[in-house]
Amino acid sequence: ERQGCQIDFENVSFAYEGASGDPVLKNISFTCLPGETIGIIGSTGSGKSSLVSLIPRFYDTSAGTIRVDGVDIGKLDPAKLRDQIAIVPQKSILFSGTIEENLRWGNEHAALDEIIQAAKMAEAHGFITSFPEGYETILGQRGVNLSGGQKQRLSIARALVRKPDVLILDDCTSALDTTTETNIKESLKSFASGVTCLLIAQRITSVMDADKIIVMDDGEIVGIGTHETLMKSCRVYVEIFQS
Ligand code: GTP
Q1: Is 147 part of a structural domain of the chain?
Q2: 205 close to 193: Cβ distance less than 8 angstroms
Q3: Where does the pLDDT of residue 214 fall: very low under 50, low under 70, confident under 90, or very high at 90 and above?
């Protein structure tokens, strides 16, 4: 059974190399327990994507420590670390090839039924099987054109095929209607019972039922808590809620 990883940020600051001015992340500390779902919300440019990109070490921190299951990620083998973590990026990256090849990317050994199961959880199986060629449908220039929401669902399915310990969704449900988004979140709950999940979102409704929500503003955490707590205690959160 999957356990999910614990993730600790301790006084983490980060600046992009060569960038002038304030660091993009300032003194970030929080703990995400194994199997928890954490929502991350905040205005555009507040540092949400930068924060999660530090976990698989796409960039290294400027100060502070990130630990996965208690171990400083600077001391972990990056390949092993990245193998545990799946990030679904803001912009889906699909290549010219069949849907099946695209879903298998990152886990070459996945069986077709695992791929189908992942596609079902990501609400993609329906539209895939509506194509005459199904999972053999070719994407890209010579193939079918998918909508933004269909691409997002394939990217989520691809991440699930990898069976990660940590699943990071970076604002990748923005093109989905709320029903589809809710359905995906419901299936993730069963799949992700042992998976640590970080969920970046624009809409409060996307993160409302997370175990806790991190509110980012200008590179800093200005609130951590449940929806109810933040509605009472965090001005920035209430502003996002009302906007
Ligand atoms: P949205 O995705 O728009 O919601 O923003 P975000 O909250 O995810 O913020 P993000 O982490 O993308 O950006 C935080 C700050 O870092 C912004 O000022 C960006 O301009 C800056 N930034 C992001 N990526 C890069 C990069 O690759 N290089 C440099 N130099 N700056 C970057």
Answers
A1: yes
A2: no
A3: very high
Nearest to 15 by CA among 50, 65, 43: 50
Is position 116 within any domain?
A: yes
Q: Does residue 40's CB lie within 6 angstroms of at least one atom of ligand 1?
A: no
Please write the tens of the pLDDT for every residue from 102-143. 999 988 889 999 999 999 999 999 999 999 999 999 998 777
Tokens of residue 71, six digits: 């171990």
DSSP string computed for 14-36: E--TT--SS-SEEEEEEEE-TT-
CATH number for the domain spanning 87: value is 3.40.50.300
Highest mean pLDDT among 74-83, 170-179, 183-192: 74-83
Please determine, for residue 1, whether its predicted confidence score (pLDDT) is greater than 60.
no
Q: How many domains does the chain have?
A: 1
In a domain, 140, yes or no: yes
The verdict on the CB of residue 47 being under 6 Å from ligand 1 is yes
Is residue 126 a part of any domain in this protein? yes
Q: Is the ipTM of this complex over 0.90?
A: yes
Give the range of the structural domain holding residue 21, as residue numbers without chain letter.
7-242
Residue 7 has pLDDT above 60, yes or no: yes
Ligand 1: does its nearest atom lie under 6 Å from the Cβ of 23?
Answer: no
Ligand 1 nearest-atom number relative to CA 53: 11
Q: How far is the CA of 138 from the centre of ligand 1 (A)?
A: 33
> Strand, helix or coil at 170?
strand
Could you tell me if the CB of 117 is within 6 A of ligand 1? no
Q: How many angstroms is it from 34 CA to the middle of ligand 1? A: 27
Distance CA 60, CA 13 (A): 10
Closest atom, ligand 1, to C-alpha of 46? 7
